[in-house]
Specification:
Rossmann fold; 7-stranded mixed beta sheet; 7 strands; globular
């Protein structure tokens, strides 16, 4: 399979950077996951890994009284998040940093909660579990979502979505097994509901793609890229029973 062109990444980032969220998730699911962290301190110190432009970061600040360090390796996303923090007067509670989650220059045992929605797979779940265990205090929580297969033998159009980005994607049982062999205890897990895919992610994404079709009406290369990007929400609408995102609530033991 050929590598995407630089133009593809340019338009991809332009679209995804304009969205409130860069992946599936919603406030109700985040609230449910936080509720399962029963002994979280009243004012927790939180690390949000792979924060994007901060869709879930703001939810964490709203749903807790804690402080948040939000990290993403994409500098443009961090710049947008930083601008929002100034506009909303949240710079005293949320810090936005450019960083690679695989090489974080942070003190060990310094967080009560590490949160990551759809991002840990970028460095491999086993490595991510090890890194997060080191950064958490004793009894600290790691809460994350990850893409999982729900049925065997997915259609080619579904496999194409993940084969280049997440070729090692497994099932819920695979993730449970990895957690059980890590420094974490699995407390609970649950799948994202359909609205977590559509309300704040795919519906806005399709709206932006439609706008860009007009913006790039005289640019055949851009139109072809937009056509490719539109395949993802279309495939999910048709084949969502084959895969989902699962929330995992774990605690360092």
């Amino acid at each position: 399979m050929s590598e995407p062109s630089p133009r593809f990444f340019e338009i991809f980032l332009e679209i995804f950077g304009s969205l409130t969220r860069q992946g599936p998730g919603n406030r109700a699911s985040a609230q449910k996951a936080l509720y399962l962290c029963e002994d979280l301190p009243n004012v927790p110190e939180i690390l949000d890994l792979g924060c994007g432009t901060g869709g879930q970061t703001f939810q964490l600040a709203e749903l807790t009284q804690g402080s948040v360090i939000a990290v993403d390796q994409h500098s443009v996303s961090i710049e947008k998040l930083s601008q929002k923090l100034v506009q909303l007067g949240l710079t005293n509670r949320i810090q936005a940093q450019v960083g690679d989650m695989a090489e974080l220059n942070m003190a060990q045992s310094s967080f009560d909660l590490i949160w990551s929605e759809g991002a840990l797979y970028n460095i491999g779940i086993p490595r991510a579990l090890s890194i997060c265990a080191g950064l958490l205090r004793k009894g600290g929580y790691l809460v994350f979502t990850d893409a999982v297969w729900c049925r065997a033998n997915p259609p080619d159009e579904v496999k194409a979505i993940f084969e280049s980005d997440y070729p090692t994607m497994g099932t819920v049982a695979d993730l449970v097994s990895l957690i059980e062999s890590s420094p974490f205890k699995l407390l609970n897990h649950f799948p994202l509901p359909p609205e977590a895919w559509w309300d704040d992610f795919y519906t806005p994404m399709e709206r932006v793609i439609e706008e860009f079709l007009g913006k790039y009406a005289d640019d055949p290369e851009a139109l072809e890229i937009l056509k490719q990007l539109a395949l993802e929400p279309a495939a999910h609408r048709k084949n969502s029973d084959y895969y989902n995102y699962e929330f995992f609530i774990t605690r360092k033991v």
